[in-house]
Write a structure and sequence with these properties.
mainly alpha, Arc Repressor Mutant, subunit A, two-stranded antiparallel sheet, 54% helix
Length: 164
């Protein structure tokens, strides 16, 4: 099975949202800069993620995207499914017509593997992934590289002082 960039980038972007959820909405521009994903590609992905009820847009100053559900309710499999990806390692896309319209000898093996992969990914929530060793530190390094924390801190100070 090879997961396409759609699936990989969607999971990465959703993880970025989950990490920063308490700080407020996250812009696609920030995700683009931090994760090295094209902004136009993120816009396409977030359209699908929004339709699937996984993210919600926040308008106005300080707007962006937030998780539409708690991070402990969103699984990696849901994210992959939302962008029209399939967790399937069969050559026939699960149709059992692998060999000139007939089922191949190893169809059940690959079909069972696909089911197990799906169950594995469906058993991992964003919240669990956020808490994995090294993830918070890596996220902080990326945030610093684009000045994300500096900007957020300045915005919070301006709001607290009534300047915004």
């Amino acid at each position: 099975m090879k997961l396409s960039t759609k699936g990989r980038y969607s999971v990465t972007a959703m993880l970025d949202l989950a990490i920063h959820d308490k700080a407020g909405p996250v812009t696609l521009g920030d995700i683009s800069q931090c994760q090295g994903i094209s902004l136009s590609y993120l816009e396409q992905l977030f359209s699908n993620l929004r339709k699937a009820g996984l993210v919600k847009g926040v308008r106005g100053p300080g707007g962006g995207y937030r998780l539409a559900q708690p991070a402990n309710k969103i699984t990696v499999a849901q994210i992959i499914r939302a962008v029209d990806e399939k967790v399937d390692v069969t050559n026939c896309k699960g149709e059992a017509d692998c060999q000139q319209g007939e089922r191949c000898l190893t169809h059940e093996l690959w079909s069972d593997l696909s089911d197990r992969l799906y169950l594995f990914l469906d058993g991992i929530t964003l919240a669990q992934f956020v808490d994995r060793p090294g993830i918070p530190e890596l996220s902080m390094q990326r945030d610093k590289s684009i000045g994300r924390f500096v900007l957020a801190r300045k915005q919070a100070e301006a709001i607290s002082q009534g300047l915004v």
